[in-house]
Amino acid sequence: MNNNFSRRTFLKRATAAGLLGALTATGLSDPVKAAEQRGEKLGTLIDLTRCDGCPNSPTPLCVAACRQHNQSRFPEPQKPLKYYWPQKKVEDWSDKRELTTRLTPYNWTFVDKVKVEHNGLQHEIHVPRRCMHCDNPTCLKLCPFSAISKESTGAVSIDDEVCFGGAKCRDVCPWGIPQRQAGVGLYLQIAPDLAGGGVMYKCDLCSDLLAVGKKPACIQACPREALTIGPREEIQALARKKAQDMGGYVYGDLENGGTSTLYISSVPFEKIDQAIKADKKQKEDNSPGRPGMPVKVDNYLESEKGLFYSALLAPFAGAAAAGITAYRTLKGDQSNGTSPNPVNPGEEEEHDHNNP
Question: What is the pLDDT of residues 310-322, one digit of tens each?
Answer without folding.
Answer: 666 666 666 666 6
